[in-house]
Amino acid sequence: MAALHSSGSTTGYNWGEPVPDTNGGSDIVLWKHSDDSYKPYFSSTRTWDQIRERKAAVFWCKGVWFAQEVPRFSFIVWLAARNRLSTGDRMRAWGIQQACVLCGEPDETRDHILFACPYSFTVWDSLVNRLSGNMTDPDWLTTLQFVTANNLQILDKILLKMAFQTSIYHIWKERNERRHQTGFRTASQVMRIVDKAVRNRITPLRYTAGHKYVGLMQRWFEVTATS
Ligand SMILES: [Zn+2]
Question: Residue 43 carries which DSSP code?
Answer without folding.
Answer: -
